[in-house]
Q: What sequence folds into this?
């Protein structure tokens, strides 16, 4: 018998103060939950959410509407202890992407609710705009931070700024409307896993605005607050098994999401038009989020990426399956404490050893089926902040990065689209076509192949690409992994030198 705590949603208020771009599982299980808890305990009804799906399917938006915008979040402490939280703080759901359902194809069927979204963003009632659109949704070069103007969505938004399709384009048009109407700008709060995520969001918006109007870009640069944040909660993609487990608890909800009980949110306190009193719900409001953000990206997300590429190559399905292996646990602990932790500058009293222990405990939560293939998506967008900048910092101080080198080798091999046992899979990455060409051209020569990948300046910092010792370590790791297999590659890493 499971220990189940059931928490009903607070009553809706009809007042929307926050607009969110990116109606995905993480938003519904993280930011929305904090706001739901805040509404329940404070009675403050000013912060309802309008949430928009910019890409993906329209089905979720319509399903939420049909359910009266109520859905369930299952928060698992472990397999036998779960909190079922009904959430209703999202009071409007919109769709601005392309409707790809049968019978709805065609370039003209973009932006069903675009005008409604822009009107909502331009309203004086909207004081905060939040985003979870993934790293690639900002259309910035991962290594340089420059706007990808040749991307089809950005090119469209440059040519058609009043009918935008990208998140930066939607923000630019909404801010332009507020400026033209004399309405102060909303605060833009990025909740994606990127270093300096507020500043990167500002860069994307300002660079795109400059393509339209230099004075508008200058106004955004000067007047709009873009605080940084760090978000943390493991929220796997839903599976049929998850829905079956919820049905056993009496929950029949196609919009439900599952996640771990742990949740963390650290936010820079810069909200000129006001904000909810999030700190009452455990949100850490700070002057500088950078140390916490970098810690999480390099230790938690960096470890996840190690498991994703090494595990996927050995046909391991989930994070739990991977950390059930002692050798992979040893790898993660060594990576976190010997390669990632020395590159961090944390506030006094931060115990990184304890943080590493807590991460391994969370990874071992057997109630979550966090698929490694899900984590492996978009590696070209993730690896700079998770591994590469930290590796460069470690090497520049005379340290070694054998775990990171093995991870990079595994990522390069993973992009071939075939695991070490001959099983094929789709490589889901904006640069997948480039990777395919590199493997076809250089797959027979490991040294040349690794060099070609490391020379991708859209991914690798130039100083790291120029570090001959790093390239040699990746080549050595690639050879061990591909000729000996994962077990032997990890055993050699453990062997004393």
A:
């Amino acid at each position: 018998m499971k220990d189940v705590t059931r928490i009903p949603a607070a009553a809706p208020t009809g007042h929307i103060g926050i607009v969110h771009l990116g109606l995905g599982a993480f938003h519904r299980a993280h930011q929305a939950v904090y706001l739901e808890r805040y509404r329940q305990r404070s009675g403050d009804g000013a912060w309802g959410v309008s949430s928009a799906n910019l890409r993906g399917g329209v089905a979720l938006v319509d399903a939420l509407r049909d359910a009266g915008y109520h859905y369930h979040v299952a928060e698992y402490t472990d397999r036998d202890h779960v909190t079922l939280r009904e959430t209703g703080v999202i009071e409007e759901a919109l769709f601005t992407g392309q409707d790809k359902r049968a019978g709805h194809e065609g370039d003209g069927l973009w932006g069903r609710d675009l005008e409604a979204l822009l009107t909502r963003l331009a309203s004086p009632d909207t004081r905060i705009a939040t985003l979870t659109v993934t790293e690639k949704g900002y259309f910035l070069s991962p290594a340089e931070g420059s706007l990808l103007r040749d991307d089809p969505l950005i090119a469209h938004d440059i040519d058609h700024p009043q009918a935008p399709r990208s998140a930066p384009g939607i923000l630019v048009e909404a801010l332009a409307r507020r400026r033209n109407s004399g309405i102060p700008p909303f605060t833009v709060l990025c909740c994606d896993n990127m270093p300096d995520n507020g500043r990167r969001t500002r860069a994307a918006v300002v660079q795109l605005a400059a393509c339209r109007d230099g004075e508008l870009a200058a106004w955004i640069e000067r007047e709009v607050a873009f605080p940084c944040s760090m978000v943390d909660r493991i929220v796997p993609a839903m599976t049929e098994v998850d829905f079956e487990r919820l049905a056993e608890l009496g929950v029949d909800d196609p919009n439900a999401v599952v996640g771990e009980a742990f949740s963390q949110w650290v936010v820079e306190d810069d909200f000129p038009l006001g904000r909810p009193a999030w700190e009452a719900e455990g949100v850490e409001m700070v002057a500088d989020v950078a140390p916490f953000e970098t810690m999480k990206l390099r230790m938690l997300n960096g470890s996840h990426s190690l498991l994703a590429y090494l595990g996927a190559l050995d046909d391991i399905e989930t994070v739990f399956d991977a950390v059930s292996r002692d050798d992979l646990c040893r790898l993660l602990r060594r990576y976190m404490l010997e390669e990632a932790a020395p590159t961090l500058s944390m506030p006094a009293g931060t115990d990184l050893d304890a943080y590493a222990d807590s991460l391994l405990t969370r990874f071992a939560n057997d109630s979550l089926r966090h698929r490694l293939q899900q984590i492996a998506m978009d590696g070209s967008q993730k690896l700079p902040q998770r591994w590469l900048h930290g590796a460069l910092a470690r090497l520049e101080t005379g340290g070694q990065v054998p775990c990171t080198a093995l991870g990079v080798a595994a990522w390069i091999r993973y992009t071939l689209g075939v695991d070490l046992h001959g099983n094929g899979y789709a490589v889901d990455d904006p640069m997948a076509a480039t990777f395919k060409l590199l493997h076809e051209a250089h797959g027979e020569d490991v040294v040349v192949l690794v060099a070609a990948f490391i020379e991708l300046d859209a991914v690798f910092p130039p100083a790291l690409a120029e570090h001959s010792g790093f390239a040699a370590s990746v080549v050595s790791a690639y050879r061990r992994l591909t000729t000996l297999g994962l077990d032997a590659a990890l055993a050699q890493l453990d062997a004393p030198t």
About this structure: The first strand starts at residue 3 and ends at 7. The mean pLDDT is 95.
